[in-house]
Automatic annotation (TrEMBL):
It holds the Pfam family BT1. The keyword tRNA-binding does not apply. InterPro entries: BT1, MFS_trans_sf. It is found in: Membrane. Keywords: Membrane, Transmembrane, Transmembrane helix, Transport. PANTHER family: FOLATE-BIOPTERIN TRANSPORTER 1, CHLOROPLASTIC (PTHR31585), FOLATE-BIOPTERIN TRANSPORTER 6-RELATED (PTHR31585:SF44). This is Folate-biopterin transporter 6. It is a multi-pass membrane protein. One of its GO terms (cellular component) is membrane. Belongs to the major facilitator superfamily. Folate-biopterin transporter (TC 2.A.71) family.
Length: 300
């Protein structure tokens, strides 16, 4: 009898704990949703959407998709050698080197009273037209490089603009700064994963040049973001004098900041590590996608 009672009590205990265990899993699954809703409530839904679009779609997805499709474009469409592609990639990185310039522009050159929205629209239009031309027209190597630089410039300007929004919100609500960084990293990682997972399929079915047409979607979304993201309009008089004053202050601030050892030392290290590192990506790509033996012929 005692054993039966203990067995019944054990069964009842297991039956009672099952819903709790299931409820725990449900709570854990809903926690990210609550987190995103909290960010939307505290920071604004359009800001959260902007971070997801820029970091997730424009950088994560488009960046990984662009890396695969552009490699096949230079190899199969333009038919240039790996050394040439490696040299041309220098121009693709120039817009990212000019990020301080884009940052100063978004801070001190407002357009019709807005400092962020017009630059989202401009970057979206630039990326959209550059991608459309690249995907639909047979271009020379020089013209293709110009279009690639246009795409890279569009991504860099959008990145600087959303970073300015993140910096402002981090100052206004410092407690949420780690959450914003987590949202950026998660969006970028998820977008990159989707981009790498789907780029090969698009290149296979549409070809290298046709697959680049998919790249027009992220900048198109940036245009819509520029019209809908929340931003207070500025009303200023004597705009020219204030712009010149702001440019002077911004340049002096940058010069003063770079003088601090905690700034210039890691900056110098990152610059040297990137500038002096040897990349054989293009050579390896041509090797493992070439169909002629003794190459692996992974593209067959």
């Amino acid at each position: 009898m005692l054993e039966e009672e203990h067995g019944a009590m054990g069964a009842d205990g297991l039956a009672g704990s099952a819903p709790e265990r299931g409820g725990g899993w449900a709570e854990a699954a809903l926690e990210p949703v609550r987190w995103v809703r909290m960010l939307c409530r505290e920071l604004g839904a359009t800001f959260v959407a902007g971070v997801v679009l820029v970091y997730g779609l424009n950088q994560g997805f488009a960046g990984s998709f662009f890396r695969v499709a552009s490699d096949y474009y230079w190899k199969d469409v333009q038919r240039v050698q790996p050394a040439t592609v490696q040299f041309l990639s220098i121009f693709f990185h120039v817009p990212w080197v000019l990020k301080p310039l884009w940052g100063v522009m978004t801070d001190v050159f407002p357009v019709r009273g807005y400092r962020r929205r017009p630059y989202f629209v401009f970057s979206g239009m630039l990326g959209m037209f550059s991608t459309a031309i690249l995907a639909s027209v047979g271009l020379s190597v020089t013209s293709a490089v110009v279009c690639f630089v246009g795409i890279s410039t569009a991504v860099a300007i959008a990145d600087v603009t959303i970073d300015a929004c993140i910096a402002k919100n981090s100052i206004d609500k410092p407690a949420l700064a780690p959450d914003m960084q987590s949202l950026c990293a998660f969006s970028s990682s998820l977008g990159a994963l989707i981009g790498y997972a789907t780029s090969g399929m698009f290149v296979h079915h549409l070809g290298a040049q046709g697959a680049l047409g998919v790249m027009a979607l992220p900048p198109t979304m940036l245009v819509f973001l520029g019209f809908y993201i929340y931003e207070l309009k500025m009303y200023q008089h004597n705009m020219k004098e204030k712009v010149l004053n702001k440019v002077t202050v911004a340049v002096k601030g940058m010069v003063q900041t770079i003088k601090y050892p905690v700034v210039w030392k890691p900056s110098l290290y990152m610059f040297l590590s990137l500038a002096l590192s040897i990349s054989t990506h293009e050579g390896q790509f041509y090797w493992y996608t070439n169909k002629e033996p003794p190459n692996p012929g992974f593209s067959q």
